[in-house]
């Protein structure tokens, strides 16, 4: 049975940081559900409209992983949702995978407290939102336990392949990396 991944899209999300993980995770054979935070039609930061599978409140399962694309004001919109914060905490309590990229690690994930004592990264300048208990790294992708964080649009493919490595195994990630002609 394929592992389930929930990608939460809030208005103003960074399109590259959403579509890249969606595409790569689907190529890996994972079951990916797109949930619009407030509606099924979600607008990206650059005006690209996405049609989500469901709204976030319609999702009743507990997935194996969640992906939080960044972008502005998408990350801020994720941060303002108490339901998203509750899901992040529940996922962390059960050691399920949490992936966040760009401003999302700093604005949506850090306030939940799950990054305390962990290493993480985010889009340049947003590290000021991390509490002092978070060790900020400038690496393109940072894995600390069940949390994967990444810098931004240019690191979206590496972020996606790391999600695949954690969810589908290193061989599947290697196969995809080679097939996608990724050099890193």
Structure description:
- This protein is of the alpha/beta class and 184 residues long.
- It has a single domain, classed as 3-Layer(aba) Sandwich (Rossmann fold).
- Helix content is 33%, strand content 22%.
- The chain has six helices and eleven strands.
- The strands form three sheets. A seven-stranded mixed β-sheet has the order 5-2-1-6-7-11-10, with helices on both faces.
- A hairpin with a 2-residue loop joins strand 10 and strand 11.
- Helix 1 packs parallel to helix 5 and helix 5 runs antiparallel to helix 6.
- The longest helix has 13 residues.
- It is globular.
- The model has no long low-confidence stretch (mean pLDDT 97).
Topology, element by element:
Elements: E1 4-9, H1 15-27, E2 31-36, E3 41-43, E4 49-51, E5 54-55, E6 65-68, H2 74-79, H3 82-93, E7 97-101, H4 104-109, E8 119-120, E9 135-136, E10 141-144, E11 147-150, H5 156-168, H6 170-179
Parallel strand pairs: 1-2, 1-6, 2-5, 6-7, 7-11, 8-9
Antiparallel strand pairs: 3-4, 10-11
Helix pairs in contact: 1-5, 5-6
Key structural traits:
alpha/beta, seven-stranded mixed sheet, 6 helices, 33% helix, 22% strand
Describe the structure concisely for a colleague:
The chain is an alpha/beta fold.
Q: Helix amount, in percent?
A: 25-40%
Give the low-pLDDT segments. none
- Structural class of the secondary elements? alpha/beta
Shape: globular
Average predicted confidence as pLDDT: 97
Q: Give the class-level CATH name.
A: Alpha Beta
What is the CATH architecture term? 3-Layer(aba) Sandwich
> Major beta sheet, specifics?
7 strands, mixed
**SSE arrangement, N to C:** EHEEEEEHHEHEEEEHH
Overall number of strands: 11
Radius of gyration: 15 Å
In total, how many domains does the architecture comprise?
A: 1
What proportion strand? Answer: 15-25%
Distance from N terminus to C terminus (CA atoms, Å) equals 30 Å
Strand order of the largest sheet: 5-2-1-6-7-11-10
Q: How large is the count of helical segments?
A: 6
CATH topology-level fold name? Rossmann fold
* CATH-assigned homologous superfamily: Class I glutamine amidotransferase (GATase) domain
């Amino acid at each position: 049975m394929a592992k389930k991944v929930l990608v939460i899209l809030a208005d103003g999300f960074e399109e590259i940081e959403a579509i890249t993980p969606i595409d790569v995770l689907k190529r890996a054979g994972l079951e990916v559900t797109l949930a619009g935070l407030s509606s099924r039609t979600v607008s990206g930061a650059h005006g690209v409209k996405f049609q989500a599978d469901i709204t976030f409140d319609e999702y009743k399962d507990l997935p194996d992983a969640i992906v939080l694309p960044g972008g502005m004001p998408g990350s801020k919109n994720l941060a303002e949702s108490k339901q998203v914060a509750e899901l992040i905490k529940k996922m962390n309590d059960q050691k399920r995978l949490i992936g966040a990229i760009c401003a999302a690690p700093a604005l949506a994930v850090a306030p939940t407290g799950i990054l305390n004592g962990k290493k993480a990264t985010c889009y340049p300048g947003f590290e000021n939102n991390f509490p002092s208990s978070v060790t900020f790294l400038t690496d393109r992708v940072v894995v600390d336990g069940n949390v994967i964080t990444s810098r931004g649009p240019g690191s979206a493919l590496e972020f996606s392949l790391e999600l695949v490595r954690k969810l589908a195994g290193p061989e599947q990630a290697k196969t995809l990396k080679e097939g996608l002609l990724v050099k890193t």
